[in-house]
Amino acid sequence: MCYLCSDFAYKCQALAKIILFLFCMTKLSVNINKVATLRNARGGNNPDVCRFALDCEAMGGEGITVHPRPDERHIRRADVFALRPLLHTEFNIEGYPNSEFIELVLQVKPTQVTLVPDSPDQITSNHGWDTVVHQGFLSEVVATFKEVGIRTSVFVDPEVKMVEYAAKIGADRVELYTEPYAANYAKDRVAAIAPYIKAGKAAKKAGLGLNAGHDLSLKNLAYFAEQIPHLDEVSIGHALICDALYLGIEETIRRYKECLKK
Question: What is the span of the domain harbouring residue 76?
């Protein structure tokens, strides 16, 4: 083989590896609720939620997640509107789909909306939707968002049936609730990951995209990403912001992205 041919072949192989890496890479969406909590504790605009979100993007984050709650105890409606024109990566809005939330999402038109079954006074998400019981309600909500081109994700427990009914609802993706995995990771990580592997396979079979979130951290994320096939995105807030207090946000994002490399 001549030098030019061998050089061309080498470059093609290198390019193929890069494309494969980018295709397989799970995206890291940074949940910035805790930054807003810190700001609200003192009043004013320090830390600046918008600036922090843009810094996360500049430092390698592939998405920004917010979860505006009715009492605005962290992210406010005004934050959501302010962030939308500034962000360059994917914007994910989580929340319970009451009329106010639906109106907000339709006005902002984020990349993705994630539907969670939170009550108004709930501190944080602690379970997924029963997509069988709420099939009719969720079908209407999902259809409303998809009509205007917003990707829809439904927050579910790692149960095959819940995943299958999310597909029947018409969702584009499911987000697996990972707190049980995180809680049992140190005891028996093989047992802890088992239901998520089954749910991930069910999502692929049903043609759904796959997200995951809640209590994922630098301790348990790499194993989760290794074991779960076709993981599109993880949304991480609390642990990531806690780590940033010690490591700095740039180094923290780097380490989380390192965990996601297949």
Answer: 26-259
Q: In one letter, which amino acid is 254?
A: R
Residue 2 lies in a domain: no
* Consecutive H or E run containing 93: strand 90-95
Cis, peptide link before residue 47, omega less than 30° from 0: yes
> Is residue 214 annotated as part of the catalytic site, yes or no?
yes
- Report which secondary-structure segment, H or E, holds 135: helix 135-146
Q: What is the pLDDT of residues 15-28, one digit of tens each?
A: 443 344 444 589 99
What burial class does residue 29 get, using C-beta atoms within 10 Å of its C-beta: 0-12 exposed, 13-18 middle, 19+ buried? buried
Catalytic residue among 62, 67, 90, 159: 67
What pTM did the predictor assign?
0.88
The count of domains in the chain is: 1
Catalytic site residue from 62, 159, 214, 233: 214
Q: Indicate if 94 belongs to the active site.
A: yes
CATH code at 165?
Answer: 3.20.20.70
